[in-house]
Amino acid sequence: NAGSNPSMNVQSTSAPSTHTNVHTEENHNDQEEEGEQLQEDEFTKPFCAPTQEVAESSSHNIEQVRRNPSRLVQTRRQLAIDPEMSKGYAQEEGIDFEESFAPVARLEAVWIFIAYAAHKSFLIYQMDVKTEFLNGPLKEEQAPRAWYDELSKFLTSKGFTKGTIDPTLFTIRYGEDILLVKIYVDDIIFVSTNSKYSKRFEKLMHSRFEMSLMGEMKFFLGLQIHQSLSGIFINQAKYTLEILHKHGMDKGQIIGTPMATKPKLDADLSGNPVDQTDYRSKIGSLMYLTSSKPDIVQAVCFCARYQSRPTEKHLKEVKMIFRYLRGTVNMGLWYPKGSSFKLTAFSNADHAGCIDSCKSTSGGIQFLGDKLVSWMSKKKNYTAMSSAEAEYVA
């Protein structure tokens, strides 16, 4: 995971065994003398045997054992006070670790990348790195971060420039031509004004890393992408059919809208509760689908507010979204080639739309030319006093 939390680094100790020679004869005698002083809740090794000069653990040579092999097996109470044991939850940034996250491209950045390729009539190629986490030296306990650092250093050493706002975008110019590279952990997409530079980049990556060239980009981050002479089409038809079948919604009536024009959803404290796990599973499936279907964002975000105590009323609204999806499986985003690239943004907000808190919900979409690249729906964390105020801060 290109995760943001430091990974736990808890060293394990072997369970007591009559065959493990980890104590010297002196330690054995000392334990017999001090046995009466041990507390009842402390764990002691009842079977101790004399050891040889060179001791071994059950599975590793003594040189590979990081702790003192002559010490007793630790209990949980002893682990809590033992300064030698690593406790990941107690690590502090700047002391135990520096950076434990790996930069990952925002999905909006991917849309802009694809929209620009469509605008310039570029053909997008895709590559995948094999065993990417084994390439970088592990300075921190975060393999994705080590891989990104290794790849970043390699590309910059070859003349690439890393983006200041988006560190996952790398560019290089060859006279009037340009090569653009977008990194998403081990998935790499790239375009160029000249196809020979795309081939050169392919050879460059193969010379340093073990790569698999997928050729023309067709499937990226769960998105189905079709590139044609007239433009680029993106959707998640395969995933949509999968979640419809998973949740038993692949049959039944099809509706034309994902929700009512003015939904009257509230906490429904007197309603009959439904299975919380199933409700959250449905919401999670739909949330992933919103990455390519802006038409369901508003409805899904409304239903997602009531995951703590869902009722039959909320479940009915969620099923409406699934019935809408059945009729729009093959719909998606269309980025025509050669069109304009002017930024246009729209935003709106209701006033006290949330029945429970009287807070407003704002929404917005952004186009580059006629290519939709960003969309959102969010409930505000304050209460607007008028519709003008709600729309002004939307």
UniProtKB/TrEMBL annotation:
<feature type="domain" description="Reverse transcriptase Ty1/copia-type">
    <location>
        <begin position="142"/>
        <end position="259"/>
    </location>
</feature>
<dbReference type="InterPro" id="IPR043502">
    <property type="entry name" value="DNA/RNA_pol_sf"/>
</dbReference>
<dbReference type="Pfam" id="PF07727">
    <property type="entry name" value="RVT_2"/>
</dbReference>
<feature type="compositionally biased region" description="Acidic residues">
    <location>
        <begin position="31"/>
        <end position="41"/>
    </location>
</feature>
<feature type="domain" description="Reverse transcriptase Ty1/copia-type">
    <location>
        <begin position="86"/>
        <end position="141"/>
    </location>
</feature>
<feature type="region of interest" description="Disordered">
    <location>
        <begin position="1"/>
        <end position="73"/>
    </location>
</feature>
<dbReference type="InterPro" id="IPR013103">
    <property type="entry name" value="RVT_2"/>
</dbReference>
<feature type="compositionally biased region" description="Polar residues">
    <location>
        <begin position="1"/>
        <end position="21"/>
    </location>
</feature>
<protein>
    <submittedName>
        <fullName>Retrovirus-related Pol polyprotein from transposon TNT 1-94</fullName>
    </submittedName>
</protein>
